[in-house]
């Protein structure tokens, strides 16, 4: 009797195992298949996002420009004591001594004169220099008239344009180098220096247009050409 019972117990176990094992295996396969489907769906979604980003990039830029154009932008306004920069920031007018100290600090000068040479540039067989300058020419003029952080009232009320506030002295040095060799400007400058004449040349730096003026072997001025124009109040 015990033997018969044991036989039926073993038989039942075998039947149960044949039902459970395939079922468990099938469930694992279904789960695995679902994971693959989900992964494929995620991959496809990522590809669609990448493709959409690529296709819509130009359109998005245009939309951003259009939105920016709708926003009212207040220009650069120079008042007696401050510069209102496009309606979102103001810069207080500084003193001439502040600009001179900034130049001396940048170049590590203990003292300086207007004739102090800060940089030299060679075009062909001729050399011109960026000098310390005065309110009328040189780096002091460039900063003191055309930079919002260093403006100290040069030619107040006259036509003027401003550099972007993040432009530094090293950027100005680099602008002079780059613009000097654009559009055959080096030939124009060399010829003017040889003949003792003024050279007014035009070029771009980081996508923006600038005017560079050189005379008597030195930089007279450098400024944005026709943009970032200021108004006075």
Describe this structure as you would to a colleague.
With 233 residues, the chain is of the alpha+beta class. 48% of the residues lie in helices and 21% in strands. The protein contains five helices and nine strands. Strand 6 and strand 7 form a beta hairpin. Helix 2 crosses helix 3. The chain is globular.
Summary of the model, kept short:
This protein has five helices and nine strands; from the N terminus they run αβββαββαααββββ. It has helices at residues 2-70, 96-107, 138-146, 169-180, 185-194, and strands spanning 76-78, 82-85, 89-92, 117-123, 126-131, 199-205, 208-215, 218-224, 230-232. The strands form three sheets. A four-stranded mixed sheet has the order 3-2-1-9, with no helix packed on it. A three-stranded antiparallel sheet has the order 6-7-8.
SSE diagram, text form:
Blueprint: H1 2-70, E1 76-78, E2 82-85, E3 89-92, H2 96-107, E4 117-123, E5 126-131, H3 138-146, H4 169-180, H5 185-194, E6 199-205, E7 208-215, E8 218-224, E9 230-232
Parallel strand pairs: 1-9
Antiparallel strand pairs: 1-2, 2-3, 4-5, 6-7, 7-8
Helix pairs in contact: 2-3
Characteristic key phrases:
single chain; 233 residues; alpha+beta; 5 helices; 9 strands; globular; disordered N terminus
Number of extended strands:
9
Please compute the radius of gyration using only Cα atoms: 36 Å
Shape call:
globular
Please report which band the strand proportion falls in: under 5%, 5-15%, 15-25%, 25-35%, 35-45% or over 45%.
Answer: 15-25%
Count of helical stretches = 5
Distance between the termini: 116 Å
Oligomeric form of this entry? single chain
Which structural class best describes the helix and strand composition?
Answer: alpha+beta
Strand order of the largest sheet: 3-2-1-9
Order of helices and strands: HEEEHEEHHHEEEE
Overall mean confidence score, pLDDT: 79
Which residue ranges are poorly predicted, with pLDDT under 50 across at least 5 consecutive positions? 1-58, 63-72
Largest sheet: 4 strands, mixed
Q: Helix coverage percent of residues? A: 40-55%
